[in-house]
Automatic annotation (TrEMBL):
Enzyme Commission identifier(s): 1.1.1.388
Top EC class, one word: oxidoreductase
Entry GO MF terms: glucose-6-phosphate dehydrogenase activity; NAD+ binding
Boundaries of every NAD-dependent epimerase/dehydratase domain copy: 5-175
Annotated protein name in UniProt: NAD-dependent glucose-6-phosphate dehydrogenase
Protein's pathway: Carbohydrate degradation; pentose phosphate pathway
Classification of source organism: Archaea, Methanobacteriati, Methanobacteriota, Stenosarchaea group, Halobacteria
PANTHER family found in the cross-reference section: 4-EPIMERASE, PUTATIVE (AFU_ORTHOLOGUE AFUA_7G00360)-RELATED (PTHR43103:SF5), NUCLEOSIDE-DIPHOSPHATE-SUGAR EPIMERASE (PTHR43103)
GO BP: glucose metabolic process; pentose-phosphate shunt, oxidative branch
Free-text function comment from the UniProt entry: Catalyzes the NAD-dependent oxidation of glucose 6-phosphate to 6-phosphogluconolactone.
Catalytic residues (positions): 145
Catalysis performed (reactions): D-glucose 6-phosphate + NAD(+) = 6-phospho-D-glucono-1,5-lactone + NADH + H(+)
Signal sequence segment: none
Record text on subunit structure and interactions: Homodimer.
Length: 255
């Protein structure tokens, strides 16, 4: 992509994973409501994603948006997810359409579909269980945060159908640095390594798609999310697998 790429929520964990992997590959415009913790070579906009005017300025001239900014807490209260996640996503999509942006990658979550696990856990988190969600299922949010992510996906569907914006919703699993979550089967089943995270969002910038929902996890043996759509449509090719680590997060000798 020749045009700049807007990364909202650039100062957060997912933003840092992306920046750590592909910072040099694009002409970035970072946006966060927090000022940068460290100096950066790229343009940095300090703004709230619910600030319509600031977002309109930020999307001007960009080719793609990776929209991460929001309240990431599964236990976040309604007022916060309504404002930061739902209103924020609508503000970004609307501004993107008006500015003629080609594509938006939206950071959705495993919590948009968390209640598919309810009647199947803990087996669903284990390698021998072959149940897979593939992105075509209806949302079954596990909390109000998950409801806000399902809303962000639906907003994306609308902006695609009504305005032809290319939208990919990435249902991110559990991003941790260096090793999978320790002593946590759910987290190991949906682990997303930093390098796979950066690679996946690079594919979201580069690939051609209309409207897609994909799962954002590494190629974990324990997975109950299919990676087929991410592989077929985006060309995602994950490198990591939580099975290469012990339950305590140590690399296995033979991995
Ligand atoms: N970290 C994970 O494992 C997962 C993350 N996600 C989603 O990915 C996105 C990023 O998550 P993390 O990086 O983990 O969270 P984080 O809290 O580390 O980063 C979020 C960033 O967004 C900024 N932000 C929050 N509300 C904002 C607003 N209204 N306007 C401007 N900036 C705002 C914060 O200052 C922060 O720098 C979130 O949308 C989250 O729901 C989804 C699933 C899993
Ligand atoms: O969406 C998110 O999901 C991950 C995993 O959820 P958890 O309930 O198993 O911890 C979470 O760590 C992250 O903060 C959240 O944004």
């Amino acid at each position: 992509m020749d045009e700049p790429v807007l990364l909202t929520g650039a100062e957060g964990r997912v933003g840092r994973a992306i920046r750590g992997g592909i910072a040099e590959d694009y002409d970035w415009r970072f946006l966060d409501r927090e000022p940068p913790a460290e100096e950066t070579d790229h343009e940095f906009v300090v703004a709230d994603v619910t600030d319509d005017e600031a977002v309109r300025d930020a999307v001007e001239g960009v080719g793609a948006v990776i929209h991460l900014a929001g309240d990431p807490r599964p236990e976040a209260p309604w007022n916060s997810v309504l404002q930061n996640n739902i209103d924020g996503a609508q503000t970004v999509y609307e501004a993107a359409v008006d500015a003629g942006v080609e594509k938006v990658a939206f950071a959705s979550s495993n919590h948009a579909v968390g209640h598919y696990e309810t009647e199947r856990k803990p087996d669903i988190y284990r390698t021998q269980d072959d149940y897979l969600l593939d992105g075509s299922e209806l949302p079954r949010p596990s909390n109000l945060y998950g409801v806000s992510k399902a809303a962000g996906e639906t907003l994306g569907r609308y902006y695609h159908d009504e305005h032809d914006l290319s939208v990919v919703c990435v249902r991110i699993g559990n991003l941790t640095k260096g090793h999978p979550p320790i002593d946590y089967e759910r987290g190991q089943a949906m682990w997303l390594s930093y390098r796979d995270c950066a690679h996946l969002f690079e594919r979201c910038i580069e690939a051609d798609y209309g409207y897609e929902i994909v799962y954002g996890i590494s190629d974990n043996d324990r997975k109950y999310y299919s990676l087929e759509r991410a592989k077929d449509v985006l060309g995602y090719s994950p490198s990591d697998n939580s099975a290469d680590f012990t339950n305590q997060g140590e690399p296995k000798d033979d991995a």
